[in-house]
Amino acid sequence: MDLEPPERLARTVAAWEGEAGRVWLTELPGRVAGYLERWQLTPERVFAAGGQISMIVLVRAVDGTPAVLKVGMVNQETAQEHAALAHWGGRGAVRLLRADPAQGVLLEERLRADVSLRSLAEPKAMLEAAGIVQRLWVPPAEGHPFASVADRTAALGAVLRQRREQEFAADARDLVDEALALREELTASAPEPVLLHGDFHHGNVLSGERMPWLAIDPKPLVGEPAYDLAWLARDRLPTLAAQPGSRAAARRRVAKLASSLEVDPERLRGWALFRAVEAGVWYLSVGGREDGELLLEFASWL
Predict the structure, then answer these.
(1) What is the distance between the terminal CA atoms of the chain, rounded to a whole angstrom?
(2) Annotated catalytic, 177?
(3) How far apart are CA 108 and CA 98, in angstroms?
């Protein structure tokens, strides 16, 4: 079976991770083959539309159970994915079957990989998403390994401050300043922390057999729920941007999400703005001007 990385994976890893990413891609087929043998898994196919920094292989365990082998790059965002999935224990999220965290290798229950919440109309998708994310907001265990929102965004803010001075960010400097100021205010007055998904949006909620919808691909943190809703607030952004009255629609979405999940709308607005600016400037820094400018435009609406 061909275990070469899918084109999308190869393109994003090379663009985002540079030389380290290219080395990882070279080693990836051998690593995948090794875990297929070690864990006695029979591969069915590589899921070409899988992760941006992980390879997804549909497999069967030795007893015939369908599963997913996920082999990803390990970084500060993904290093504790296994710990979050284990803590949730299948409640609201995909069930973890086996893991080698140091190598970024996870064996998970198989969901319908090609059916996410993006297959639903937006109002229904938002309703389902709200129900799922609430299940994930549980207290972390004592001595947990997860970074805090305050620490993670402090590191992101420091890099954002450096990128602010680059030519590619010249038009975004006022937004960057507002985002950094909001981050300071939000982290100084944060409510009781819970375990967060960290990358929650419609594309990361898949249809399952055990439950209708389950979250995948967490980049876990501990912090306030408003932070976890920031990506959801700008979901389907190209469609949002293309409709008349985009600014008003974005603000209505933030208000509706905050109301439905009992989150302070100003805190959600602040985190949505900060995360959109940070991601937008990052895209500009790696040559993704179209994505970057769209995210910065969304931030300006807020």
Answers:
(1) 49
(2) no
(3) 7
Cα 280–chain centre separation: 15
Block residue for tokens 């970024």: 104
Average pLDDT score over residue span 27-48: 94
User: What pLDDT band is residue 237 in, cutting at 50, 70 and 90?
Assistant: very high
Distance CA 208, CA 90 (A): 11
The hierarchical CATH code for the domain 116-301 is 3.90.1200.10
Task: Give the integer Cα–Cα distance in Å for 47 and 166.
Answer: 38
Residue 100 half-sphere exposure, CB side, CA atoms within 13 Å? 14
Radius of gyration of the chain (CA): 19
| CB-based contact 95:108 (threshold 8 Å) | yes
> pTM here?
0.94
Mean pLDDT (the chain, rounded): 95
* Chain position carrying tokens 């082999």: 71
Residues 274/230, Cβ–Cβ less than 8 Å: yes
Q: In the predicted model, is pLDDT for residue 83 greater than 90?
A: yes
Question: Are 56 and 104 contacting, i.e. CB atoms less than 8 angstroms apart?
Answer: no
Phi, psi dihedrals of residue 221, rounded to the nearest 5°: -145, 170
Tell me the residue length of the chain. 302
Q: What angle do CA 6, 84, 110 make, to 5 degrees?
A: 45
Catalytic site residue from 199, 217, 228, 235: 199
Residue type, 157: G
In CATH, the architecture of 7-114 is: 2-Layer Sandwich (3.30)
Domain boundaries, the chain: 7-114, 116-301
Report the alpha-carbon distance of residue 91 to residue 94 in Å, rounded. Answer: 8
User: Which of 17-21, 162-166, 220-224 bottoms out in mean pLDDT, i.e. has the lowest?
Assistant: 17-21
Q: How many CB atoms lie within 10 A of CB 11?
A: 12
Task: Using alpha carbons, select from 159, 177, 190 the residue that is nearest to residue 274.
Answer: 177
